[in-house]
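Before a colleague's protein record goes any further, I have to sign it off. Would you go through it and say whether the fold makes sense for this chain? Take the sequence as given and treat only the C-alpha cells as open to question. The record follows directly below this note.
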Amino acid sequence: MRQLSPQQVFELLQQSESKPVLLDVREPFEVEICAIDGSINIPLHQIPTALEDLDPAQEYVLICHHGMRSQRAGVILAANGFDKLINLVGGIDAWACNVDSGMKRY
C-alpha cells in the first residue's frame, strides 16, 4: 500500500484520467462533519462484509480521521486481493490542514 500525503493525493486527483475511488472508512457521524467530495463511506468494521461490492482492479484512496483506520482497512483489502491501495497519510484532518482550509475539523 502506498502512503501519500494530502497534497500528493490532491495532485493525483487533479492529474489522473482514471480517478481512484475515495473510500472513507470513518463512521457515518464523522462523515457528516466533513468529507472529501465524491468519496464513498464504508466504515472500517463493514469492510470485510463489503468486499463483494468493491472491485479489486480499481485503485482506492483510503481515508479516515488520522490515517490509522484507513491503514487497517488497507491490510484487510490487501489480504483479499486488492493491490491498488493508497493510504491518505494524516487522514481527513491533514487534508483539512493542507488542502482544504475551509473544511470543518474535529
